[in-house]
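FAQ

Q: What does a record look like?
A: Structure on top, sequence underneath. For example:
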């Protein structure tokens, strides 16, 4: 398991994508799966910056990547405002742009890219988002 701490700033999204991508490479993921986990981690980190922390600042995002052959688990932890991803409805992708609600696409994208998505809030404070991706050959 590898762990890194990132300041919750948009300029660190490249570093977060690289960190997660390296772990996906160690798991022998295809280029397609590497891109998927990088995009999901980018979207999750952006959500943490925007929604949990209310914008950029001195806050941190702690990311752990656990590689098991054919499986990658990415755990993102923050100490911002909690939220329930289950409360985010699936977006109506068939609606025209004027008929769509603002927001909700990020969680939809994360759920579409990853095989498992788990979220929990600690009573002591802190949020944990766990993303799991299986290698294509394992699906």
């Amino acid at each position: 398991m590898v762990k890194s701490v990132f300041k919750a700033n948009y300029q660190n999204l490249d570093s977060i994508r690289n960190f997660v991508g390296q772990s996906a490479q160690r798991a022998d993921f295809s280029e397609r799966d590497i891109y998927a986990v990088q995009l999901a981690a980018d979207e999750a980190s952006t959500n943490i910056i925007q929604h949990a922390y209310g914008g950029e600042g001195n806050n941190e995002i702690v990311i752990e990547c656990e590689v098991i052959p054919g499986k990658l688990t990415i755990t993102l932890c923050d100490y911002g405002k909690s939220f329930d991803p289950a409360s985010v409805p699936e977006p109506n992708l068939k609606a025209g742009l004027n008929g769509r609600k603002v927001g909700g696409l990020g969680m939809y994208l994360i759920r579409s890219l990853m095989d498992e998505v788990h979220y929990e809030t600690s009573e002591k404070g802190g949020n944990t988002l766990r993303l799991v991706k299986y290698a294509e050959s394992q699906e």
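Q: Is there anything notable about this one?
A: Strands lie at 2-7, 60-68, 71-78, 116-121, 127-134.
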